Amino acid sequence: MNLPAPRVSGPNLPRDEAAPAAADPASTAPPVEVHDMTVAYHRKPVLWDIDLILPEGKLVGVIGPNGAGKSTLLKAILGLVPMVSGRVEIYGRPYAESRRLVGYVPQRESVDWDFPVDALGVVEMGLYGRLGWFRRPGRAEREKAMGCLRQVGMADLARRQISQLSGGQQQRVFLARALAQEARIYFMDEPMAGVDAATEEAVIGILQELRSSGKTVVVVQHDLQTVPAYFDHVILLNLRLVAAGPTSEVFTAENLRHTYGGRLTILDEAAHAIERAYQPAPEDRKAEPPGPARPG
Amino acid sequence: MMAMAYSVSSPAPLAAAVGGFFDYNTTVVLAGTGLLGLVSGVIGSFAVLRRRALIGDALSHAALPGICLAFILTGQRHFTALLAGAFATGLLGVWTVSFLRRHTRTKEDAAIGIVLSVFFGVGIVLSRSIQSMSVEGSKAGLDNFIFGKTAGMLAEDVYATLAAAALIGVAVVVFYKEFKLVSFDSDFSTVQGWPTLLLDLVLMGLLALTAVVGLPAVGVVLMAALLIVPGAAARFWTDRLGPLLCLSGLFGFLTGIGGTLAGVVASDIWQVHLPAGPVIVLAGAAFFLLSMLAAPRRGVLARLLELLRLSRRVAEQNLLRTAYEMTEPHLPRRAPFGIDDLVRRRSWTEQEARRLVARAASRGHLVPAGPERVVLTTAGLERAAAVVRTHRLWELYLIEEAAIAVDHTDRDADRIEHILPPALVSRLEERLRATKRLPAAGPGIAAGIALDVGDIPPSPHRLEEGGGEEPKIEARR
Questions:
Q1: Predicted complex: ipTM over 0.85
Q2: Distance (Å) from the C-alpha of residue A99 to the closest C-alpha of chain B?
Q3: Phi, psi at B232, each rounded to 5°
Q4: I want to staple B137 with a disulfide (CB 3.0 to 4.6 A). Which of A176, B2, B130, B358 is the partner?
Q5: pTM (two decimals)
Q6: Does residue B1 form part of some domain?
């Protein structure tokens, strides 16, 4: 595992907190800037020359077929997989210096849910970064974590061991843990994969709340049908970057064909989604700042 | 569980009692193995939780060549040197596993198998060569490191164990939160900025230290058991990390003491001299077996009981559903039906059907109505309608909406509102109502008021607030 940068002290370095560009909300640096990113597993490249700048305060969907490198893109940005070449900046600074601004929701399958911890305990982990070395979570942390669980509608299951939760509930626990991080930008790896309807509603509700409070949220998404309804901005990925931009401009049948190749069923699915989203008043859409139709 | 913990957990009186019974040597050994078990249990739990249990095995086997090399280099049985050698090659073994896994196509289990057997093989070759080459070598007793020999334990072994225990105790207390995070989700820990690799190395180093100080007593072959078994046994009793570590330490302590005592008894009374490692492992196995069977909730017996209860409840619900479906065409009249009707509609034998009917009668859901015939009571009809309603909603959901997900459909059928959003439940109910298949329950029907589909209010949530003629859904438990 590669560590972003050699460090001598804990994650709560006061220097981190005082880092001017990172802490300054008026900073004009974009939330994420990726230059020339190439990532390879065992000499086989999985991401080629990705160049990307993400806008602030948007819901960003990362879309692409299986094995397109969607998760890898997130992990490379976060320093979880090494890059062969390239550079990543979060709010104008290397990741190691701006990690306090970042919240993360990993794929649900990435941990052992039989671990002896309850839902509240997992959410408290989101606060460990702030606590720093040696300090244990206390009453204040517990209350904060409870608040985050309440936000995802899981307060009554706080004391339940995590393997006793359904898949969707586990996903919501992860989301609550990211909320506890109180980040400015969130990276979420398939938070809506294989979850029940109540969870999907809860998740998308939280995502929209985060956006309206000015946060940036980057979500790896598998289901194409919901893309125009959920995301302001999309990144179409298939080993290379196919297209990135406002959903209304980039989420087109042609771009999807470039991303998915000739897989017709998927294209049909997407075509329906596009139709549904933009049919009512295509002209009005253009006038509005980039953002798809959202019912309600 | 706690009662047992308290009755034996205080080591001071135990040591005193033991001191009275046994000679100095045995007391030293008991203190040593008890302490070793305690510390193995605590640090081994982390390995078990990280799914790295077998790493401990590779580690202890890989320590053998180090012991032999240290003997060759120093030319004598210098305790500290032997342990240092064991520590060095043990970690080399772990590093080799990780190297093979990362940089070749060898999978982790195969890598562990390779390292474990190759290092152990080298160790055996070295130890036999030493023993046949020189007089000191043949007297060094290196073979004792293979299966362990508690009788040979000296005060300095106990001090080494004590030092390791102190270090590990302090580390686990100080870095509890960090170890917990790294063990549960190392990626998240990295993203948050913790030096995950370093924390991992510290954990591994502590594991290696424990294994090494345990080698003289337990031996390289079975040391892993002392690291793995207490943690695995403790996992049956608790769902929380703190209690798990304490309990695992306690199990380890008792395993060490129990194994040693068993060994002493065997040699003093039956004159059978058993190697310490296997006896200690057997003591650990006893704890594991006990935990596996008797632990509440996670234990085998508890699970069997749970299964039995579930199948009873399913049978009860099936009976009520069948009864409701037979009653449904005659509503609002509650028509009696025969036991043979039940047998015809379900896969029950007549005997099973009778037993179920008797149980339902004792609950007040059914009452006899003539020979071989029964009828739903008011309470029975209400309960049956509630069960049928939930069941039909689930059925419809699975047929029409299940594209969303099905991983929660094995949930208790009584709580559809807890799992599906209210809007979806209303929509499903609407569809049931359209085909006149939405059961209404409550005092209304049972009292004989005609079942008019149009009277049923639209949302199930208003129903729960009760009142008036609105059908009431019974909340279970």
A1: no
A2: 6
A3: -65, -35
A4: B130
A5: 0.75
A6: no
